[in-house]
Amino acid sequence: MQGKEIFGAPQPDGGGVQFLYMDCGRLIDAARLSGNIQDEYMLDLLKTSQGFKTVVHSIGVSVSGRDSKEPVRFVLEMYPNHPGEKATQIKKDLFMDGMETVINLEDIDFEPSDKEVGQIRFEFGTSKVQGDADVRFYLNQGFIAPVQPMEQMVDFNSSGYRKMISKSLMHVGNTVRLEKVLSKAGSGENVTLSFIGGSITQGAGAIPLNEKCYARVFAQSFEKKYCKGGKVNFIKAGVGGTPSELGMIRFERDVLRDYAEKPDLIVIEFAVNDEGDETKGVCYESLVRKALSLPWKPAVVLLFAVFSFDWNLQDRLGPVGIRYDLPMVSVLDAVTEQFKLLPEDGRVISKNQFFYDVYHPSNLGHQIMSDCLINLIDSVNESRDTSYEEDDKLPCPVIGGDFEKVELLDKKELEALKRKYKISKLEAGSFEDVDKDLQLVEMDEEIVPKPEFPGNWAYNGKDTDVKPFVMNINCSKLLLVFKDSGSALFGTAEVFVDEKKVKDVNPLEVGWTHCNAVIILNEEKNRQHKVEIKMANGMNDKKFTILGFGVVRE
CA torsion sign, 265 to 515 to 547 to 207? Predict the structure, then answer.
């Protein structure tokens, strides 16, 4: 990494940390993206700890910041073969003075259980420290590093930049709702702009995340350009590593704030998070329908982000936008073709400049995403079309809208929903604790993260006689929201519906602390069901957290 911006995100102990994840092929992608490595043999070696040591002789680290005497700790952490095993952590204390410190790998005692390079992080004594970091891998004999290409400054005022941004307008659609947003802003009223999605919407890759994420930059640009006396009320509800399957469940809580807010615009960004969606688009369309059905008729825009391997799911999810004639913006369409060009042939921004890592845009990338959205707004503003009409009734789904009416059920919502879902019995059993070690998310303009799903039911792994979680509920569809973890203290739970086992839920499959949702019941008609969750055989000494449920009653 060269000149990568880093920021000490606030931690509970008062310090700050910048995480850079390298597992699951990210190191290989970073070697291609930042190091210009094309040798497949070298890239293949980087997949494992042993291969990494075969290629890399030493690591050079330098950090620059406003205060050259500011201390920072560099950590390169290996991940083990199995959760809970001891793994190597390479640590080096340095100052933010730009001087390179070299760590010779021959001086490191590596653990035999090391699997792969897991993460790089920069740890600060205080939070909100900002700087630039270089990390270089010096190679062993026999391996050759390619020449690093020189980057050119991005010219935001060039005709090439404007042309690139214009390509992002994938579908203008019916703009009547967007025109209402513009009219409201132009009349001096406040407008509420909201965004729901994954880690890109959360702001990953932006430094600092709460200020430079595309959603915040867009909201500020919109206010400056289109608000005539009023202000923008900004709602950001991105949660890293989660798809629309979870987004549709938390929509009312995180976007509508339990109906305390009425967004004028809702931007939906799940085009790079939904690959593993078990419904192949039904959850996404259900979320879209949920947003479109709100009685105050907010504008809905579909935003398709992009990964560094020139991929997203717009081919799968785009038909949803066509069915409802929604404005759609594709960052993929804007940037990927010009990535292949040389600067003299018309390249506006390199792939290395656009991406902070293989999955997330840099500050430049977030700026481009914002400009793509502003381009849509500009296009609507320049060609107001009063011929558009809006049907109060939504058309039939193109993929499916099974979960359009899904609601979050957790401890907080339990009393309010008991009667609606005829919950005649809810016994937490051994799942009576509350897990406070949850996925933390920076919402809205905040940099201090908040826990997701605090109203949970948790088993602490300490009962000798483990009693199951039991709920009797009347519904047609049910999703379980549970906590993933990278800790070996967690274990598999079994889910039963009407005495039949429907799912083994292993919180270690993903390998890090975050929220996960799975369908455990999907029927057409409402009826009474008994739901039982218990620890699998041999797992009574392990933990498991039920974050909540997504419930549908037709």
Answer: negative
Instruction: Tell which residue, 122, 107, 114, has the closest CA to residue 88.
Output: 114
- pLDDT tens-place string over residues 42-92: 999 999 999 999 999 999 999 999 999 999 999 999 999 998 899 999 999
Query: Which residues, listed in sequence order, are joined to residue 137 by a DSSP beta bridge?
Result: 59
SS3 72: strand
Tens of pLDDT, residues 391-420: 779 999 999 999 999 999 999 999 999 999
Nearest to 194 by CA among 268, 143, 136, 123: 268
Q: Which amino acid is at 397?
A: P
334 touches 164 (CB < 8 A): yes
Encoded amino acid at 462, one letter:
K
Q: How many CB atoms lie within 10 A of CB 90?
A: 18
Strand partners, 92: 74
Q: What radius of gyration do the chain's Cα atoms show?
A: 25
pTM of the model: 0.92
Q: Would you call the peptide bond into 208 cis, given omega within 30 degrees of 0 as the criterion?
A: yes
Q: State the Cα angle at 428 between 426 and 430, rounded to 5°.
A: 155
